[in-house]
Amino acid sequence: MSELTLPFTRDRLGTREMCELILHSGQVALRDINAGELPFEYSANKATLVPGPHGPILEGTPRFGPGYILIKALVSQEHTFFSLINQLALRVVDARVRLDGICGNVSGGMIPGFVLKLYLSHLYGGPVYYFYAREMRKEHGSREMLVGVDNTPFIKEGMNFGDVEELVNNAQTTCNAALTLRASGFRCTHAITILDYANSAAKIQREAINLTQISLVTLPELLAYARDVGKWPGPVIDDYLSYLESPDDWAARNQEAIIRTLQQKEEEHHG
After folding, report:
1. Residue 176 to residue 180: CA distance in whole angstroms
2. Helix axes 219-228 and 234-245, enclosed angle (nearest 10)
3. In this structure, are residues 46 and 29 in contact, taking their beta carbons and an 8 Å threshold?
4. Spatial separation of the C-alpha atoms in residues 140 and 263, rounded to whole Å
5. Residue 230 and residue 214 share a domain
6. 4 located within any domain
7. Same structural domain, 51 and 80
8. In the Cβ-directed half-sphere of 225, how many Cα atoms lie within 13 Å?
9. CB 113 within 8 A of CB 181
10. N vs C: which end of the chain shows fewer Cβ within 10 Å?
C-alpha cells in the first residue's frame, strides 16, 4: 500500500519548528505557583486533606505539579497532528529502521500509531501492519492484551513491531508493551514517541531490555525553546524543571499550594 491521501512532505523540520508547532497548539501549560496560581492535579494523585492541630494537612501521596502537557489532544488539530506524525515517520526512516508494523499503546498511542503506520507504508513502499496494546500500565501481559493480532494471517510471529506512545515519561508502559510483544512471539526493537521527557530513569529501563527510543522532540528541548521565545517567565520554567527533577521534593516545598487546590476542589464539589 503506497497510496497516501494525508498531507505529506519529505522535507525535515528543525527541532525549533517542531517545538513551535507543539507550543502553538495550546496543549502545554505552565502555572506560576510562586505568584499564587494553583498547581495541576494529576490523575495519579492519592492525597486527601485531614484535620490537623493547626488546620488541614495532607495525607497520602500528593501528585500535583506546575505543568500539564496533553500531547494526545493534538488529534483534534489536523495540521499540527499530521505534520508531527509525518516528521516522526521521517525520523524512523532516518534511523534506518525497517519495521513490519506498529503497535499503538492505549490510549495515547493508538491514533498516532495508526497514522504513523500509514506514513511509513508510503515511505517504505509496502505494507506496514497495525494492532494495539491495552492495559500496559501495571505490568507486561500476554498475547490477549494485543488487539488485532489473532485470526489475522498476514501478521506473523517474528515480525518487528515498533511500540508507539504520544509521549514518554518514566517509560513503564513503553517497556511493558515491548516485553508483551516479545512474550507474544514478536520482535520489538524500537519505541517511538512524539515527546520524550528524557527521564534518566526511563533511559535505564529501556537499556535494561535493549529497547531503542526514537523521539521527535525532548521536553528539555521544548522548554529551552519556550524560554528563548519568552513563552513563560524563566522562574516559571525553572520551577517546572525542578518538579521534573524530583516531584516529591517539589510537593514538599509547595504543600500550602496543594492544600489550597484540594480545598477549592472540595468547595466546588459541595457547591
Report:
1. 6
2. 170
3. no
4. 37
5. no
6. no
7. no
8. 17
9. no
10. C
